[in-house]
Amino acid sequence: MAKQYDVAVIGAGAAGMMCAAVAAQRGKRVVLLDHATRLAEKIRISGGGRCNFTNLNAGPANFLSQNPHFCRSALSRYTPQDFLGLVKKHRIAYHEKHKGQLFCDDSSEQIIGMLRAECAAGDVAWRMPCKVGDIEKTATGFRIVAEGGDIDCASVVVATGGLSIPKIGATDLGYRIARQFDLQVVEPRPGLVPLTFDGPSWEAFAPLAGIALEVEVSTGDPKAKGKARAQRGHFREDLLFTHRGLSGPAILQISSYWQPGTPIVLDLLPDMDMAEELIASKNTVKKQLGNVLAQWLPARLAEGLLRANGFAPDARLADMADAKLRKLGDAINRWGITPTGSEGYKKAEVTLGGVDTRELSQQSMMANKVPGLYFIGETVDVTGWLGGYNFQWAWASGYAAGQSV
Ligand code: FDA
Questions:
Q1: DSSP letter (8 states) at residue 200
Q2: Rounded to whole angstroms, what are the CA distances from 46 to 42, 51, 223, 376, 391?
Q3: pTM above 0.95?
Q4: Residue 134 forms beta bridges with which residues?
Q5: Within 6 Å (CB) of ligand 1, which residues are found?
Q6: Nearest CA to 63 among 298, 265, 233?
Q7: pLDDT tens by residue, 117-166
Q8: Which residues pair with 96 in a beta bridge?
Q9: Which cofactors must be present for this protein to function (predicted)?
Q10: Does residue 99 come out as left (phi exceeding 0), alpha (psi in the -120 to 50 range) or beta?
Q11: Could you give the dihedral angle defined by the CA atoms of residues 79, 82, 83 and 89, in that order, rounded to the nearest 10 degrees?
């Protein structure tokens, strides 16, 4: 005999636990299924173990999607302040780190404990670890074939996340369920991921691993308007040189906007116009170029940049033609480089793409053509910037579905 529930939530991560708790506290009989042996691994490892659980400034402009307006409704009905209210209710100490990012003072385990307690308050039933098999539409809802026995329910909420970090249990189940019910899926790809470079143009930079500095980074057409404008990324954050390419918050942010085969543009000294500065100091500064640049840039980076652009680091500034100094200024303020690829799902913090938002109600997250079937969290084609935005989407979309099921 199949077990009866009002709601089955597949995936006990951030979005799934939020949705289960909200629905159960409304009096629904909810079961939460997950194949993992450890609960909510992504929350546990997030924010370096302290979970950057929201961002005070979260709004639709901080998310990527084929429909940038889709997330507006859910985000406005469950805000960062709402989640903070829950954090305060559970007496979890937190602090603001950088640009509105809120972290636990102690451990991300506290957020997992809080969500577990909220589920317990509504008497959520658990099946974990549990292999989830086929899902069928029935006359009254759905039947889920699952380890431990079949489940009959009126609503199914799919909260299985994206493809990032397969070694802790990421799978494509959410996309497979969407396709089974004839829903479009925007091709998934890794986001918030280090970018890789190789070939001769990168040789001068390969030895710079470990160097970090604040930069401006952008990609896409700076003159783009309308929808194309929303696809253009521009950030001021820290950049880190790695053995295989570039990383750090600046690169993770821009990676979500980067299209393979196109360049990213770096401004290594965003508060200076280098060409103007170099030309203006030509007659007063007697130093070699390498030493001049090392006033503002790490010395090894200055040397790498000079060599990569055909300048000898020991050439004297005073001997340089203005046109050459303009070229050098451009190489520093507008360094365009084309990544060869990315570190992929193994290192990506999120997955871009997912269930096409045109298939879902922005109020409830329910599939328009399959009443009772919901998709929430990272499985949906809504992806946040680095900085607590992805959890805010998980909470907000989980809450929206939890209120509707
Ligand atoms: P989530 O991945 O949390 O949960 C999905 C659940 O579904 C998992 O428990 C999984 O086991 C289960 N599942 C998958 N396939 C299944 C199957 N076939 N059968 C049964 N169950 C299945 N974001 C942020 O805002 N602040 C931060 O600090 C960080 N930090 C961070 C660090 C790292 C290293 C990563 C990889 C990611 C982050 N993120 C983040 C992103 C954030 O973790 C992510 O966006 C959310 O966890 C997404 O929540 P979901 O509930 O949608 O998926």
A1: G
A2: 6, 5, 35, 19, 10
A3: yes
A4: none
A5: 10-16, 34-36, 40, 42, 45-47, 51-52, 132, 159-161, 164-165, 169, 171, 173, 349-350, 377-378, 388-391, 394
A6: 233
A7: 999 999 999 999 999 999 999 999 999 999 999 999 999 999 999 999 99
A8: 102
A9: FAD
A10: left
A11: 170
